[in-house]
Amino acid sequence: MASYKGKILEVNLANGSIAHSTLEQDILRRFIGGSGLAAKLFLDRVSPDVDPLSGENILFIMTGPLAGTALPGVSRLAAGFKSPLTNIWGESNCGGNFGPELKFAGYDGIAIAGISDRPVYLFIDDDQVEIRDASDLWGRDIYETTDLLKERIGGRRSAKVLAIGQAGENLVRYASAINDKDAVLGRCGTGAVMGARKLKAIAVRGSGKVEPAHPAEFERGRKQIMKKVKASAITHSLRNYGTDGGMVDGAMSGDLPIKNWSLGKNIALASKIDGATLSERYLTRTHACYGCPVACKRVIKVEEGPYNTDEGPGPEYETCASFGSLLMVDDLAGIVKANEVCNRYGLDTISCGASIAFAIDCFENGIIGKQDTDGIELKWGDMGAILKMVDKIARRDGFGDTLAEGSKRAAQKIGRNAYNNAIEVKGLELPMHDPRAGHGLGLAYATSVRGGCHLTHIVAYAETGTFVAPEIGLHGGYNPKTSEGKAEMTIVSENLAMVVNSAIICQFVLLSLSVGDVLDMLRTTTGFDYDLKEMMECGERTWLLKRGLCNLMGVGAADDRLPQRILTPTNEGGAAGSVPDIDLMLKQYYKLRPLDAEGRPTREKLHSLGLSDLAARL
């Protein structure tokens, strides 16, 4: 099966059974891999009414067909499940080295069901798979767990470890799972799904290889792609400054969220916490995912002050914003410490920072007080209080138990207009890019298949002209601060992202490539003779499948919305006075997608893309 292994490892933690299932070529061709394949398997096997923290909510850990090859930016891993945070389809993906190692061990993915009666970890050593006791690891953080497992397993080839921390054990609804300390399955609560199963970690070691279907053609294409990536200005920026390199530009354009999305400009704050400052003050070296020449990851060390940290993974842009500008924190060392603490506990820094920003807003407006927050005075910019709250969230202690539910549920519990301060879509806190600076992004947030998200589409790049692909309808030249005409751009951007997230290709590498390059990568690696039309239909099919899953889980037209704060203009900055016309964009979007008045894909569209089984259930 060329670059596919054709096998899914099937694990049931309740009865200890270990088996494997085979994948049909037709399913692989139509859904490719990654989150697309996970969604198809979920539809076939899991009831949409399943409790997200039950053993029936199968956790799919999936690679893509390109993982383990020498192509750049294809080492990513996807998780698919029903989210304990949003109660709809949940997915997360990360880079690192776990995905290639799983392929080397002989599997395209893992399906994990059931709940263990004790803490365990799963050890995969090629075709030798064991469920092992992890009682002595329970209660340890992710860094400790990773080090102990690598030492315990030993051997000439180091195992790759995907682990949860105390946040996952305590079922924080936005708990993450992390591969080898720095590649994070962050969003939607992967860590909570693992924690509910008493699954502390998965360790994998493989000795196989991944062979492309057409080796000579593959190698010619790989050399050209590698040349493009290495020469790209985007690559040079990411290598020099990391993902946080554009923060000041974002602050100037109005893209950077400030003070829980209430301010439009603070250049001084942004300049203190951007990528250049991080590299200048605390960078010790760069780090890359498996086989990637970009090396955008930061390895940092803070040697002095109250927030000193040992050398370790540094914060990405999303963390520098969610624990920086969103909370009015300009102390970069404090943000580095918050990143380390969240990584050790296993907390999604976006949802965690946003939930704390929600709480500070409630505190400042008198909705809650010290009697609610265990005596902690929540103030903008107070990293000491913020770190105390992070600890409480991870341990579900006191008021932290409320915030561990995420801002939407916390607002519902608190009442008294608290919801005005919860900036989320479908229960998922928004990532750190403001739709008032790019109206198409607002439409993409409203329609995203997992809630407020910046990775289930490429709108941010298409709308600003960073990525142009006229052959599929992304022509460039868009005015970010207008709403007219953004529906078609958003649909194409979503469909392409579904291909990318199924393949799975890092979006930072995608920015250096063309759609034709993506097509060639898939053709020469998988052996499927895709043309451009079929490849994009794979993306459209996957988006509609995920949307249909969300419909089955209760999502309708009323859920395609933006928070009122995002529809309120700021008075300052590059996006002053600008707000998305979400009603206009949704009207055009529903017609083009097409969705019916209740927000469901039309029966005709589903049948045309081979999703008749989904159509029947809807």
Key attributes of the depicted protein:
17 strands, Aldehyde Ferredoxin Oxidoreductase Protein, subunit A, domain 2, six-stranded mixed β-sheet, Aldehyde Ferredoxin Oxidoreductase,  A, domain 1, Aldehyde Ferredoxin Oxidoreductase Protein, subunit A, domain 3, 3 domains, 618 residues, alpha+beta, 26 helices
Describe the protein.
- This protein has 26 helices and 17 strands.
- With 618 residues, it is an alpha+beta fold.
- It folds into three domains: 7-205, Aldehyde Ferredoxin Oxidoreductase,  A, domain 1 (4-Layer Sandwich), CATH 3.60.9.10; 242-428, Aldehyde Ferredoxin Oxidoreductase Protein, subunit A, domain 2 (Orthogonal Bundle), CATH 1.10.569; 436-561 and 581-617, Aldehyde Ferredoxin Oxidoreductase Protein, subunit A, domain 3 (Orthogonal Bundle).
- It has a six-stranded mixed beta sheet with strand order 2-1-6-3-4-5, with helices on both faces.
- The longest helix has 21 residues, at 532-552.
- The chain is globular, with a radius of gyration of 22 Å.
- The two termini are 33 Å apart.
- The mean pLDDT is 97.
Overall form? globular
- β-strand percent reads 5-15%
- Average pLDDT metric: 97
Please, how many helices? Answer: 26
Q: Which structural class should the secondary elements be placed in?
A: alpha+beta
What is the tally of beta strands?
Answer: 17
Spans of at least 5 consecutive residues with low confidence: none
How far do the termini sit from each other?
33 Å
Number of separate structural domains: 3
| CATH H-level superfamily of the largest domain | Aldehyde ferredoxin oxidoreductase, N-terminal domain
What's the architecture of the largest domain, going by CATH?
A: 4-Layer Sandwich
Q: Sheet bearing the most strands, described? A: 6 strands, mixed
Query: Which topology of the largest domain does CATH recognise?
Result: Aldehyde Ferredoxin Oxidoreductase,  A, domain 1
Major sheet: order of its strands?
2-1-6-3-4-5
Please compute the radius of gyration using only Cα atoms: 22 Å
